[in-house]
Specification:
single chain; about 300 residues; mainly beta; 11-stranded antiparallel sheet; two-stranded antiparallel ribbon; 13 strands; about 15% helix
Length: about 300
């Protein structure tokens, strides 16, 4: 009898020890889990007349592989000096989001199209595979007096995922002071097919080509004696204009992009990425850099 009671007490003690060990392991795994945000930016297709393409990539994940937390806000920060020219803040370059959603016709928004990309959404546990959606960005008129413009985001299915057909969401572009010039508040809500599914942003990739305008001007190419003499010959000249001014290229020859992600119940992630801006500088001679086009 005594030996049996001892064995029972020993087994209970062993089970308790195993339970404590498993609990400690679970706490250790939870402690090791960390929310990570990555952000990269680069410039390409830099033109001598001031145009360029910005490529932005972001990734959000938990180190233990669990779904990322719910994103409250997502902001992309653009370098100081890269302000939108007033020539592009008019109806000619605006996309009407209401008309776009009703007609599902993107042709009348072609003049407003300034970027495209892809979102990767995490729908676990309801959807095990990552959900890929295509996004197209258009410039729109803002009713907010504090904002520069509205960002019209068209979300559609792509070849990797057919869970979505046609959704229009709105973001906002604001002016910033200090280190950055503009802040883009991205639309982060994607309506799932099933109401019970919760989709969380895991990856974001944007290619911002910008808007362009070509003006044709008649210029005098030959005059009589003197700068104010009679024009003898004229020629039509094409003048290209990019929608934003070129960022200020400081002595360090770098401009800074940024991304801020705020989560529900988790700390905000702020990331900064410096990009080489030497290609913005003209080089009329080997000894001096010259002026920055577009400033």
């Amino acid at each position: 009898m005594g030996s049996q009671a001892g064995r029972k007490r020993g087994s209970r003690g062993t089970l308790a020890a195993v339970g404590v060990l498993l609990l400690c392991l679970s706490f250790a795994q939870a402690a090791r889990a960390e929310l990570v945000g990555e952000f990269n930016a680069r410039l390409k297709n830099v033109r001598t007349w001031g145009a360029y393409t910005a490529v932005l990539d972001s990734r959000i994940y938990e180190t233990d592989g669990s779904p990322p937390p719910t994103l409250a806000t997502a902001e992309v920060l653009f370098p100081k000096g890269a302000s939108i020219r007033s020539q592009f803040l008019r109806n000619h370059f605006y996309c009407d989001p209401t008309r776009l959603e009703l007609t599902r016709n993107t042709t009348f928004c072609e003049r407003a199209h300034f970027g495209s990309g892809e979102l990767v959404l995490d729908g676990r546990p309801a959807i095990l595979d990552p959900v890929h959606v295509a996004v197209e960005l258009y410039l729109g008129h803002s009713t907010d007096p504090k904002a520069v413009a509205t960002i019209v985001a068209l979300i559609t299915s792509n070849e990797r995922s057919h869970a979505y057909d046609f959704q229009v969401h709105l973001g906002t572009l604001y002016r910033e002071t200090g280190r950055f010039g503009h802040r883009l508040d991205l639309p982060i809500t994607v309506t799932p097919v099933l109401p019970s599914v919760v989709l969380k942003l895991a990856e974001l990739s944007l290619t911002i080509n910008g808007l362009k305008q070509v003006r044709h001007e008649r210029r005098c190419v030959r005059r009589t004696l003197g700068s104010r003499g009679r024009c003898l010959a004229r020629r039509t000249v094409s003048r290209k204009l990019f929608w934003t001014r070129v960022p200020r290229c400081q002595k360090a020859r770098r401009v800074t992009f940024g991304a801020d992600y705020a989560f529900e119940g988790r700390p905000t992630i702020r990331k900064r990425r410096k990009v080489n801006c030497k290609r913005f500088l003209r080089r009329p001679s080997a000894k001096r850099h010259g002026a920055i086009p577009g400033v």
